[in-house]
Design brief:
256 residues, alpha+beta, 7-stranded mixed β-sheet, 5-stranded mixed β-sheet, 32% helix, globular
Length: 256
Amino acid sequence: MKKRLIKIVKKAGKILKKGYYSDKSVRFKAKKDLVTIYDLAVEKYLKKEFSKYFKEFNIIAEESNNNSVEFGNSIIIDPIDGTTNFVNQVPHCAISIGVYKDKKPYIGVVYNPILEELYFAKKGFGAFLNGKKISVSSEKDLQKSLLATGFPYSSAENKDDLNDVINKIKNILPNCQDIRRLGSASIDLCMVAKGVFEAYYEMNLKAWDVSAGVLILSEAGGKVTNLDGKEHDIFEDKYIVASNGLIHNALLEKIK
């Protein structure tokens, strides 16, 4: 499955890359939530190819109606994670593919065709960037740790979410090295996986944002939980907290 999956994702990456350097027609799903014809084109291509070659899996995709799709043996697609970056030619955007068996992560692929970075992980076999094995940072001190986060689309209209984001930054920023905001959850998780960031947290993400990244990070030696330190549910939990594992408890204390 690996070779076929990567081949399909790389071909879809050509669609993304063409769109990245082209004029774009943008539609707003919400006040801050964008979609382009390239999101739709990448998703259409991936669904067509996955349906052809991986018939044992159903498909859950960001721009599709998933109401009748039961999560189980599923391929979860984010055609362009980081659409705002994509529209504005910020190179942090990626195709994210999470393959799940019996609701458990099996394979994760995150491909950024702009920077030519392909992250891959298979359960029990480690995590890789362009074929080279990666692992999380060995930093144990939160104060020396570089973190990443993201801002939810709901912050434009939901004051509770906005205040929650601001309060958490107030608690965390003085107690870490610094915080970055790249605008792509899948890439943020991969950056923790390869040891660039020590941790990443965000609220109100969807399953397709993190379905691949959580496995890639876990296979790189990291840890992913909810705010209570329990196993993260990609469909249910409001917050994701992901780290190298060594600063996880200290970070959770500051986030709470």
